[in-house]
Design goal:
About 30% of the residues lie in helices and about 20% in strands. The chain contains four helices and five strands. Strand 3, helix 4 and strand 4 form a beta-alpha-beta unit.
Length: about 190
């Protein structure tokens, strides 16, 4: 192909969502749109994270509910890969590092339910909002540092799409004495 023609075709190809170097979709994620170059599924593998099988809700609610292009995820706890949970109160039983790890486990649990709902994490357009609840004694003041375990994970997996609005709130107790509970809202492709 002549160089001038190729130069003229580049803007047309880009406007159609094609790359002049590599056209087509990823064979690993044929239904995914990885238009920003971030492959969430590959990032999970690179981080050594294996998603867990979401457990059933413990009451009359759904783990995830889609409305239009938004997915609302119910509060999830810090589920470890071995099926146990991180329990205890920050400032009493657990320090900030343990709380950070609990929030990270909670993020993995949320991603597991999200993937079960939408099939492929590369359909995520944006992590919109999260509410992080920290089981803490009255003197604990570092709720944000704990919930950073969740927030940092979302950015590691989704890049800029993982940045979100959030709240980090201290609670006098959480169900079954779990250390952290987080819910989130995610925008996905139509």
């Amino acid at each position: 192909m002549n160089k001038t023609l190729f130069t003229l075709l580049i803007p047309i190809l880009l406007s159609m969502g094609c790359s002049p170097e590599k056209s087509g979709t990823s064979s690993e994620h044929p239904t995914s749109s990885i238009s920003d170059g971030v492959d969430a599924e590959a990032n999970l593998k690179a981080l050594g994270i294996t998603l867990i099988m979401p457990n059933a809700p413990t009451a009359n609610y759904l783990k995830a509910k889609r409305s239009g292009n938004l997915v609302y995820l119910a509060g999830h706890g810090p589920d470890r890969p071995d099926g146990t949970q991180v329990i205890g109160r920050l400032g009493e039983d657990l320090d900030i590092d343990a709380g950070y790890e609990a929030a990270r486990f909670t993020g993995i649990s949320l991603l597991s339910s999200l993937k079960a709902e939408i099939g492929d994490l590369n359909k995520v357009k944006s992590i919109v909002r999260a509410q992080g609840m920290v089981n803490a004694d009255a003197g604990f003041k570092n709720h944000s540092q704990v919930i950073n375990g969740f927030s940092d994970l979302m950015v590691e997996v989704f890049g800029e799409k993982g940045k979100h609005a959030r709240a980090a709130i201290g609670m006098s107790s959480l169900p079954n004495n779990i250390a952290v509970e987080i819910d989130m809202i995610v925008e996905v492709e139509d």
